[in-house]
Design a protein that fits this description.
Elements (H helix, E strand, L loop, with lengths): L1 H85 L3 H140 L6
Helix pairs in contact: 1-2
Length: 235
């Protein structure tokens, strides 16, 4: 029975060590995923700041462009009025309008090119942010799964620890009971040894008494035989 208890204890200790190693591995993986999640969060914040900065820059450039167009229009209108006052030739007015239209066309194309470039840049940053969000979501899901596994391993370890402690208490109780039983048996053996020695002494005394009685009987038998063998009347 004791050997079975020790065998069970050995098995539980082995399972406990295995679960403990699994828990340590899960904790290590959890720390790694926490770092990956923190890195992904940092990248996401950086991308958000870059997008915000880019939007501010686009807004600023639009404002500057609008101001430049407005200022140029004002200058050309003033120049056109001055020229119209001084010159009445229609071809000069037409030339000024053509120059203005060409400038506005060039400015519009430049603005369109700038907007397309910034839109492409914004789309690229948005895509990076989306990938970062997806990676962060996957990391959070894996982190949640590892937390669940870690909690499960912790419960199993606590269960095994409780079973191990219970076995240790039972083994201690069995050892104490065994020690008490051994002590009782040793006391009983001591008493039996004493009684055996006493019995041996009494038996030796009985043998000696029996031998003495046997010797007396033999002597009496000899005397009786001698008495019977004598002739009648002789003393």
């Amino acid at each position: 029975m004791v050997s079975n208890w020790f065998h069970n204890r050995k098995l539980i200790c082995g399972e406990y060590d295995e679960e403990l190693r699994a828990r340590e591995e899960a904790e290590q993986t959890l720390r790694s995923f926490r770092k990956d999640t923190d890195d992904a969060a940092t990248i996401r914040l950086d991308l958000e700041r870059r997008v915000e900065s880019l939007m501010d820059e686009i807004s600023f450039m639009r404002k500057v462009h609008d101001e430049e167009i407005q200022e140029l229009n004002s200058m050309m209108e003033a120049q056109q009025v001055s020229v119209e006052l001084e010159l009445t030739k229609p071809d000069l007015t037409s030339a000024l309008k053509e120059i203005r239209n060409q400038y506005e066309s060039i400015a519009s194309k430049n603005l369109q090119s700038a907007e397309e470039w910034y839109k492409g840049k914004f789309a690229s940053l948005s895509e990076q942010a989306s990938r970062s969000n997806e990676a962060m979501r996957a990391s959070r899901e894996e982190l949640s799964e590892f937390r669940r596994q870690l909690q499960s391993k912790t419960i199993e370890i606590e269960t095994l620890r409780g079973a191990n402690e219970s076995l240790e208490r039972q083994i201690t109780e069995m050892e104490d009971a065994h020690d008490a039983e051994v002590t009782t048996l040793q006391d009983t053996i001591g008493h039996l040894d004493t009684e055996l020695r006493n019995l041996k002494g009494e038996m030796a005394q009985h043998l000696r008494d029996y031998q003495d009685l046997l010797n007396i009987k033999m002597a009496l038998d000899i005397e009786i035989a001698a008495y019977r063998s004598r002739p009648d009347g002789q003393s």
